[in-house]
Write a structure and sequence with these properties.
single chain; 5 strands
Length: about 90
């Protein structure tokens, strides 16, 4: 899976947030616009294949110089991208 496919889904508004992602975004003071920007400009730093529901992609980007990761996956047989969780990377 590629960054290009993620970017296409975001540009077409073919993505959705899980309730967990929304809660985590709220906890870290992140907005949907922050997540959208990370998905459009960030880099895939991991592909997690150990889940029977499908490969999870970890996209990393910066929000005002703070490293943030977005975990997402494409829904089976669909172009829709589900944002599973979002978090600030603690270093």
């Amino acid at each position: 899976m590629s960054e290009k496919r993620i970017r296409q889904a975001v540009k077409k508004n073919e993505y959705e947030f899980s309730m967990h992602a929304l809660e985590e975004m709220d906890n870290d003071n992140l907005t949907a616009e922050h997540v959208r920007d990370i998905l459009l400009h960030g880099k895939i730093v991991a592909e997690l294949t150990d889940d029977s529901r499908g490969t999870r992609l970890v996209v990393q980007g910066l929000v005002t110089r703070i490293k943030v990761e977005v975990v997402c996956r494409f829904l089976n047989l669909s172009r829709w991208l589900r944002i599973i969780t979002v978090y600030v990377v603690e270093e």
